Inverse folding.
């Protein structure tokens, strides 16, 4: 049963180890393409992502030529060449960019599907509550079970400490995304909680991905 | 043999130096000399001593001849290479050899807030009447050598210039002269606090009225960095130094429109160095320096002690001259100083006894002379199309208005003020006295006939009607005449919709109605919408930008700009009313050579300052765009920085209100001087303000900058400006600023 589930997940990524980004027209206009099918395109670059990527197409409306640039590096996997020079409606899918998924991206994607994120309610520093901390130290992080209503974290904001209670499905603390004493922005994930029964399966999937992927 | 070996090493050093100056080119059979040197070196221990001696002597003689030939035909770029040579003398050498002793201030060596700026309190020896005296001076300058790894090539960070300013003020407190030594290729162009441009502007503003004699000596004078410690009463320059508006490489990149990262052709750099007029001789002819300090053949090095002796004599002579000019009793000493002395012996002569302490009157004279000196700089570098008759009328008009305003404000206003003060005091006293007398009666009256609460108080600004723009009825931008749409640059961030051009440049005043992004508008729009209708009186329109350095091809470019704009320079100076308030405005605009400042622009700006001072009007500098100092005018452009800043300082000190408003793009020299020194600076939304553009920053610092590095918002964060105004509220905000900053009379003292 378990192996079938693992194989199912892995097979999905083995069959198509790519991510796809679709580009839709933002408004109506006459379209002109600047790339061809299977052409390599580059995405945003520069330290502040301020250098635009490859010019994909432009929409001409009311004397205004509006270019669209690729946001990600990859290959043009599909392009609506039939629309070249024609008037298109808004929201039309015109180009798809395909890019190879990295090991990290696959793991993140799997975890995103399985783990329940626990997000930061405020921009503050976070610490594990004393009880959780001592349990982590004693039994290890992935042995600590949390249930709704448990005090799991302490939010430290301007020298005021507020206890944070867990809300959501009961599970095990699988991933910790914050560092103690470092400020975390609001709505950033703090913890990834995994249902107890799924933990061994996930660990096995991640190990397999790590071993098998380039 | 040891002696011969040392001579041989020296020959090798001289040959390498020559090769560096000639940039590796095989000039004057350098390769032959190199071969000769190699032969001697190889056979040094094989041949007899006499033979080696003979060969070394012949090599030395050959090299001396070659050096003299090189000296005779030195090109400007070769002088630049001499200045950049690691063998050239630097500030520490001067401190060691020109002054008796010194103590470094504000850090030492590497342990320093900015090791490229060295400040030291030093003693200089004077021999007069058979006695030795030491006189204290503050020595400030950039250091390139003696620890090159941490000196940043003499390119000072903003905090280094701030350190210089701090110790200038210490010198003022102690009443000791300042000796500036300029060894910089330019300032380090970072905006981190206190900001490159801001700090240079503060330095120049302070130097304009620093109450001590200031002498500067230029070896490598790179534009703004040099000006940060360059405003002085007497400017010396080394005969092999250079003083320039921009590095020859930078000028060549602009001139040849070279793309970033591409190599600039050597010939273009050479020709740009020639055109910029950067040598000591050129600068002396242009009047941007006062005297040349002669160096030895091919420039002085670390160990040219005769040069240091000469320098010591020259800086003392310059300081003496500056001090003497302020004294009433000076005839014989001034004559003695005027005599041109040359040779070693002249420098050993007993010196004249001159005290460098100045009294209040002398200090006043010193500052007046400094102002006059800069006022006259570059006065021949522009042309005025006014005829003799019109200039005569103007002069008469100026004299008459001078008399009128002096009478009105200096005589009548002070009397009026005194009378007003007396009346105010009397009325204050009497109101209290009568209040006490009538209090019981008025209380009884109030009790019988109770008045309603809340009095109708009229606020001075609440009644200012007409603050909003009157759309369309006066002026519509010609940009609005196109039937198309444009995309707001913030579309992705804020989801702004496309804007129809007639709407955008008409009703919306060039502002995206969703995110408030300001699209650039032409300067005429501001003339029509900012100032009261029919109130504009432009002046000095005939002053025309010229080509004082006869830069090839520039004449044609200037003519094209004049034809395009139907104006003679990049600045418009005018008198106008803003919601009833009389103001003087100077406006740098983009259409004319990208708003660059040259001698004509500087002159017009100074004249506008003088007019505002004369008429006691607030002075607004609205910067539609400025690209910096006009490089085709070389150092004649650079001196506009101190010249205009002195004019601003005099205006502000006389009680004037000087407001600067930046729009679109404002960079470089003007921001680092007469604009950046204003106490009240504002920016129109979406404008960019800074010292150097992104490309220069990348090339100088080697690191990239965020795309919003120069944005008005970041300028506000850094404390450079005091506020960001919406274009549509410009008129209202300016009126409010005039009232809040200018006080009741808009001319606050």
């Amino acid at each position: 049963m378990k192996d079938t589930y693992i194989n199912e997940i892995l097979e999905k990524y083995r069959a198509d180890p790519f991510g796809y980004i679709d580009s839709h027209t933002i408004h109506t206009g006459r379209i002109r393409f600047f790339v061809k099918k299977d052409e390599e395109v580059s995405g945003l670059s520069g330290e502040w992502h301020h250098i635009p990527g490859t010019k994909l197409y432009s929409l001409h409306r009311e004397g205004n030529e509006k270019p669209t640039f690729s946001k990600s590096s990859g290959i043009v996997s599909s392009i609506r060449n039939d629309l070249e020079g024609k008037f298109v409606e808004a929201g039309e899918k015109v180009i798809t960019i395909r890019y190879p998924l990295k090991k990290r991206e696959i793991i993140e994607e799997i975890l995103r599907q399985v783990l329940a994120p626990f997000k930061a309610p405020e921009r503050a520093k976070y610490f594990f509550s004393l009880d959780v901390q001592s349990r982590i130290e004693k039994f290890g992080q992935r042995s600590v079970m949390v249930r709704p209503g448990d005090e799991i974290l302490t939010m430290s904001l301007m020298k005021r400490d507020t206890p944070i209670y867990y809300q959501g499905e009961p599970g095990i603390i699988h991933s910790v995304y914050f560092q103690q004493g470092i400020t975390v922005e609001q709505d950033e994930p703090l913890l990834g909680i995994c249902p107890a029964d799924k933990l061994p399966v996930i660990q096995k999937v991640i190990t397999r991905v790590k071993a098998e992927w380039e | 043999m040891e002696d011969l070996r040392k001579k041989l090493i020296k020959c090798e050093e001289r040959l390498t130096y020559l090769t560096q100056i000639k940039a590796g080119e095989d000039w004057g059979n350098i390769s032959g000399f190199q071969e000769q040197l190699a032969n001697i070196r190889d056979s040094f221990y094989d041949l007899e001593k006499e033979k080696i001696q003979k060969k070394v002597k012949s090599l030395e003689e050959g090299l001396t001849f070659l050096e003299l030939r090189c000296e005779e035909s030195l090109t400007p770029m070769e002088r630049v290479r001499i200045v950049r040579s690691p063998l050239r003398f630097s500030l520490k050498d001067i401190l060691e050899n020109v002054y008796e002793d010194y103590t470094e201030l504000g850090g030492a060596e590497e342990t320093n807030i900015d090791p490229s700026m060295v400040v030291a309190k030093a003693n200089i020896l004077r021999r007069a009447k058979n006695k030795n005296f030491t006189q204290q001076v503050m020595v400030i300058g950039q250091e390139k050598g003696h620890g090159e790894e941490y000196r940043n090539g003499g390119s000072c960070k903003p905090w280094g210039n701030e350190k210089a300013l701090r110790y200038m003020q210490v010198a003022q407190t102690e009443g000791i002269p300042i000796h500036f030594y300029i060894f910089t290729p330019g300032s380090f162009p970072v905006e981190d606090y206190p900001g490159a441009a801001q700090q240079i502007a503060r330095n120049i503003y302070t130097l304009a009225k620093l109450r001590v004699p200031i002498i500067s000596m230029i070896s490598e004078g790179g534009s703004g960095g040099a000006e940060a410690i360059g405003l002085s009463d007497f400017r010396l320059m080394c005969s092999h130094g250079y003083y320039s508006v921009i590095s020859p490489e930078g000028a060549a990149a602009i001139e040849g429109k070279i793309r970033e990262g591409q190599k600039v052709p050597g010939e273009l750099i050479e020709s740009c160095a020639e055109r910029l007029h950067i040598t000591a001789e050129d600068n002396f002819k242009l009047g941007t320096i006062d005297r040349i300090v002669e160096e030895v053949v091919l420039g002085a090095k670390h160990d040219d002690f005769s040069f240091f002796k000469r320098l010591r004599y020259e800086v003392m002579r310059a300081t003496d001259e500056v001090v003497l000019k302020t004294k009433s009793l000076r005839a014989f000493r001034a004559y003695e100083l005027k005599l041109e002395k040359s040779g070693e012996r002249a420098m050993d002569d007993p010196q004249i006894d001159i005290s460098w302490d100045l009294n209040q009157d002398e200090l006043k004279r010193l500052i007046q002379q400094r102002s006059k000196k800069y006022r006259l700089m570059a006065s021949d570098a522009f042309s005025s199309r006014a005829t003799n008759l019109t200039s005569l009328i103007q002069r008469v008009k100026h004299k008459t208005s001078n008399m009128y305003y002096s009478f009105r404000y200096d005589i009548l206003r002070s009397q009026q003020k005194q009378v007003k003060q007396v009346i105010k005091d009397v009325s204050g006293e009497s109101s209290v006295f009568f209040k006490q007398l009538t209090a019981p009666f008025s209380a009884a009256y109030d009790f019988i006939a109770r008045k309603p609460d809340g009095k109708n108080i009229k606020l001075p600004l609440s009644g200012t009607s007409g603050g909003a723009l009157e759309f369309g009825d006066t002026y519509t931008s010609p940009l609005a005449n196109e039937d198309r749409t444009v995309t707001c640059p913030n579309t992705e961030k804020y989801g702004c919709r496309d804007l129809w051009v007639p709407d955008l440049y008409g009703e919306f005043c060039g502002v995206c109605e969703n995110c408030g992004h300001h699209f650039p508008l032409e300067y005429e729009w501001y003339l029509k919408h900012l100032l009261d209708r029919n109130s504009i009186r432009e002046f000095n329109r005939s002053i025309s930008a010229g080509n004082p350095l006869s830069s090839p091809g520039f004449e044609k470019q200037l003519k094209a700009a004049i034809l395009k704009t139907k104006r003679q320079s990049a600045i418009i100076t005018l008198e106008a009313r803003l919601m009833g308030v009389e103001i003087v405005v100077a406006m740098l605009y983009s259409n004319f050579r990208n708003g660059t400042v040259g001698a004509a622009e500087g002159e017009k700006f100074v004249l506008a300052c003088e007019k505002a001072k004369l008429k006691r009007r607030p002075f607004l500098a609205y910067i539609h765009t400025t690209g910096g100092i006009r490089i085709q005018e070389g150092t004649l452009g650079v001196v506009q920085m101190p010249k205009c800043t002195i004019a601003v300082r005099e205006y502000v000190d006389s009680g004037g209100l000087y407001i600067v408003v930046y729009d679109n793009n404002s960079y470089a020299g003007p921001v680092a001087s007469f604009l950046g020194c204003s106490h009240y600076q504002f920016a129109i939304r979406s404008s960019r303000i800074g010292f150097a553009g992104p490309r220069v920053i990348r090339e100088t610092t080697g690191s990239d900058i965020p795309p919003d590095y120069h944005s008005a918002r970041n300028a506000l964060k850094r404390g450079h400006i005091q506020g960001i105004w919406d274009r549509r509220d410009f008129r209202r905000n300016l009126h409010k600023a005039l009232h809040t900053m200018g006080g009741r009379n808009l001319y606050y003292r």
